[in-house]
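Raw record, unedited: DUF2256 domain-containing protein
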Amino acid sequence: MVKKGDLPGKICATCGRPFVWRKKWEKVWDEVRFCSDRCRGEAKRKPG
């Protein structure tokens, strides 16, 4: 069993908070930039 501390992580491009790998992101982990749907929506609304 893998512990949460051993999973790869990233920093969210919108809020700047760290987040860790999830099973649903297994095939697209290199493309994941946001920690949640809310942050992805915020990025679309911000100009620039």
